[in-house]
Design a protein that fits this description.
This protein has helices at 20-33, 93-100, 117-120, 123-139, 191-202, 205-211, 227-234, 249-254, 284-296, 314-331; strands at 10-14, 39-42, 48-52, 76-84, 108-112, 150-157, 160-166, 217-221, 238-242, 257-260, 273-278, 300-308, 336-341, 349-356. With 360 residues, the protein is an alpha/beta fold. The longest helix has 18 residues, at 314-331. It starts with 9 loop residues before the first strand and ends with a strand. The protein binds S-adenosylmethionine.
């Protein structure tokens, strides 16, 4: 059977509200790099947009075998196949089923909405809708666990929206592109969730097992009060937290954590570490230069850090900073991969991971 998403000519993308233009700029750049062109349809602050490439397949824009890395400003993106509207409140399932049937069977269903105040009002409706939809898909023989074909339904309201489908490897593994994470009471700050989301979104399981476990060492620049340090320490890494501010006392008592009161921009580690993390609020070019220094000097082998983006041209800034990093790593003979994402926990910022290329 043909995988329809390879032929789709449009994408639906979810992003943080206010970042639609950055998402569109990123798509323009990625499409151009593949010798393609297209246009976005977006409304400011909507938290979603569509991307259209008439006559050209969009599959190459997505991660996976035919694409490249994930998009930075899209939490999730999938090939758009059609629209639905005027779903009757008495039976919304039957007309939807009829519309999506030609693309089934499906191995999973994602029910999505914009991450805005208006979008979030749909959550209760979608919980009930799922209870009706999933058994109906099974009954209509439109469900097959082995199909590797995820049905995405995006609702603008309870009567209208868009649908599409995609193989699992090309889309976010989470509905809305948002992993559901809970903050344990022991976490010294909410920022702890950001690092957990970062390694879930930017590293694969093998990389997490390789770099983020017992026997590894880490430095956390701008560590206080210690959410990121705690995340690393509870996975068994030995962590040095660098900050003039104090770390939560229980971190130092219960985990292999030490605190250095110093300026992160001038401090140098007594010996190289495996993992560098940095959550300092500073100019993105300054933060990036600090990461570059650590990687080029061999002080750390992996880096995970934030770049704050308070400016207007956020995509242009990110693109030029990350290109600069790529060139300097390559010039130094370091075979590294750079991955970046605006995570759910990222506001005016993105998170970046720099890892040795697989096999190096
Ligand atoms: C956003 S907070 C970090 C929160 C931390 N990641 C957590 O999970 O709890 C930023 C920290 O960077 C520190 N910081 C800012 N500039 C710094 C510098 N030049 N050297 C060291 N720490 C710095 C601040 O003191 C602050 O504690």
């Amino acid at each position: 059977m043909t995988i329809i998403s390879h032929r789709a000519e449009a994408l639906l993308l979810l992003c943080r509200a206010g970042f639609e233009a950055d998402c569109a700029a990123e798509l323009t750049e990625r499409a151009a790099a593949q010798g393609q062109g297209g246009y976005a349809r977006a409304t400011r602050d909507a938290g979603w947009l569509t991307w259209h490439q008439p006559g050209q397949a969009v599959a190459g824009l997505l991660p996976g075998p035919s694409g490249g890395e994930r998009l930075i400003f899209a939490r999730t993106a999938w090939p758009l196949l059609g629209e639905f509207s005027d779903l009757p409140p008495t039976d919304r399932v039957s007309p939807l089923l009829a519309q999506v049937a030609p693309w089934g069977p499906f191995s999973a269903v994602r029910l999505e909405h914009a991450d805005t105040n208006a979008g979030r009002t749909l959550q209760r409706f979608l919980r009930g809708f799922r209870k009706a939809l999933e058994p109906a898909l099974k009954q209509a023989r439109l469900w097959d666990d082995g199909a590797d074909r995820i049905l995405h339904l995006f609702f603008e309201d309870s009567a209208q929206g868009r649908f599409g489908c995609a193989p699992a490897a090309t889309v976010s593994p989470w509905e809305q592109g948002i992993p559901r994470l809970r903050l344990p009471a022991a976490a010294p700050s909410r920022s702890a969730l950001k690092l957990e989301e970062a390694w879930l979104c930017l590293m694969n399981e093998a990389e997490r097992a390789h770099w983020l476990g017992a026997g590894r060492s880490a430095v956390d620049l701008g560590a206080a009060p210690g959410g990121w340090t705690w995340q690393l320490a509870r996975r068994g890494l030995r962590v040095t937290g660098v900050d003039h501010g104090r770390l939560a006392a229980h971190l130092l008592e219960e985990y292999p954590v030490s605190h250095v009161s110093a300026d992160a921009f001038t401090w140098r580690p007594p010996r190289p570490v495996d993992v560098l993390v940095c959550d300092i609020v500073d100019k993105p070019s300054r933060s990036l230069a600090l990461m570059e220094k650590w990687l080029l000097r061999g002080w750390a082998r992996v880096a995970l850090f934030n770049l704050k983006l308070p400016m207007k041209q956020r995509h242009a800034t990110v693109s030029s900073l990350l290109s600069r990093l790529q060139v300097s790593l390559a010039d130094a003979g370091l075979a590294m991969q750079i991955r970046a994402a605006q995570l759910y926990h990222d506001r005016e910022e993105i998170t970046v991971a720099v890892l040795p290329q697989q096999g190096t």
